[in-house]
Amino acid sequence: MNGYYPIVLQLRGKRCVIIGGGGIAQRKLLGLLEAGADDVLLVSPSVTAQIERLAAEGKFRLERREYKEEDAKEAWLIFAATNDKRVNAAVAADGERFGVLVNAADEPDNSTFISPSVVRRGDLLLAVTVSGASPALSQQIKQELEAQYGPRYEEIAARLRRLRDRTLDMILDEQERRAVLKLAAEDAVQFNRNNFDTDEWLQSLYHRIDRRHS
User: Fold this and answer.
1) Which of 48, 141, 201, 211 is deepest in the core (most CB within 10 A)?
2) Which residues sit opposite 102 in a β-bridge?
3) Which keywords has UniProt assigned to this entry (predicted)?
4) What is the pLDDT of residues 150-163, one digit of tens each?
């Protein structure tokens, strides 16, 4: 047992800090922004061209300086992503002392969480990790998932979200609602519905469930 418990974090309104400005820091930054993080601080004397561009676009806050203890103290989540092991260790130690979630690059033993390889298709989020044992294997599995769950799953997930919202309003019986949503998931994956009305689809699903029970 490796002690890791998988969760999905809501980052809106949470201070996320990245210490470092190289390739690893850039990957962490892109992952945070893709996840919708809206309070991101990156601290590094020098940064990549892409980090520079994103900072100029106002995507996050960039401070060109060395790490200081207050960065960890004010964070909710922090990445130690420099090429200096001593700095990464200091960030990890400060984060643990202040009760902050810490990810130290390539040092899972100094981390309180690890970042999985992620495939995003709108509301659909697929995450893969081998708990630090082999990032290459995580990437390989991620590529397989990207091929299996293509861009159409973004629309599938969006349709099912809209349908779920309507079922909460229109179907009071929880067992019936679960049956309709289960059938909807099967239906949405099997058929390509480019033009459809959510209420009509819900009515059709409900009738099909009703016929099964009659």
Assistant:
1) 201
2) 78
3) NAD, Oxidoreductase, Porphyrin biosynthesis
4) 999 999 999 899 99
